[in-house]
Amino acid sequence: MCITLFAYRKLKRISFIFILLLVFTQCTQKSDYQSRPGEYWVRVTESDLPQKTILRGEPFGITNFQMTRKPFFIDEYIVVSDKAMDPPLHIIDTKEKKWLYGLGIEGSGPGEVAYTWTLDYSFTPGNFWAYSFEKVFSEFSLNDSTHKLSQNQLKQRNPEFYAATEITWLTDSTLLALRVSGEEKFVEYSKSGKVLAGYGSWKGMLPDDNPLNVNRQAFANHFTSNRSKTKFGFFSMDRDHFEILDYSSKEILVVEGPYFENPSYEIIQQSEDYSYYYMNDPEAVRTYQDFSLENTKSLCYTVGRKSRKSKPLECLHAI
């Protein structure tokens, strides 16, 4: 097994340092986790880091974006969601480097979209899904700029399905997700919201006997998949830790390092039935910021600095 990991640090507005990290099977397997079924743990050290390579981006010069989520690349286009603009979804041609048209009508009615949290691939060529805070999937087509309303929606409505917080399509009839609480790390659902299977376990991930949702919040800050829907993964922003599920084998690769730190945290009791994780360590290393699982490589973008010395990444309102 060989994984290629990229990390970046902010240089200027569009310049980044990429650290190329090769993780081979000879990396140390974490002995105290060998008994965790279905999980293979490796530890990466500083000596695995090769020389830095500088990459420079090229701005498109598209302005006026105000409250954007991260760009979503599909075919030769970029899809951008912006809560403050009408329409809320924007299609950008990467070859011509220009804005083409907008899609979506903001609202909660049939075919309308609320604030889009994530974007996902569709199994229909030329289509994509927008997933909103209201837990609604809305499908749009890149081939038709006239249909502003979504022609196909899926809503999470039964209680078990509603517990899924980070979710992506697995097949055209099933989905894979992280959920608010529960033992399994990766949870498979039918379109009706029935739980079909679960993979991995949150038990014992933190040294204390915490609620399972606290363990999930400490280790899983973002969830994504590759386009072929064979790999699914998440990372932590507070620990040097990420995990990738290979769906065909149902095995989970867990990678830690090169910062082996356990930041201090507290558990805040929000209600009688719910508590949540809060990292309160100013000396903690701020790690991953984004994640890509395309092709045979895993790309992880990281800050890699102490949290009190780190400045939030600039929210650029231009592409």
Structure description:
This is DKNYY family protein. The structure is a single chain. The chain is mainly beta and 319 residues long. It contains two helices and 24 strands. The chain has a domain at 59-155: Thrombin, subunit H. 4% of the residues lie in helices and 43% in strands. The strands form seven sheets. Strands 3-20-19-18-17 form a five-stranded mixed β-sheet, with no helix packed on it. The protein has a four-stranded antiparallel β-sheet with strand order 5-6-7-8, with no helix packed on it. The chain has a four-stranded antiparallel β-sheet with strand order 9-10-11-12, with no helix packed on it. The chain is globular. 29% of the residues are buried. Mean pLDDT is 80; it is low at 1-34 and 307-319.
Q: What characteristics describe this protein?
A:
2 helices; 4-stranded antiparallel sheet; globular; 43% strand; mainly beta; 319 residues; 5-stranded mixed sheet; Thrombin, subunit H; single chain; disordered N terminus
Short description:
By secondary structure, the protein is mainly β.
Average predicted confidence as pLDDT: 80
CATH architecture of the domain at 59-155: Beta Barrel
Distance between the termini: 36 Å
Helical fraction equals: under 10%
Our estimate of the beta-strand percent is: 35-45%
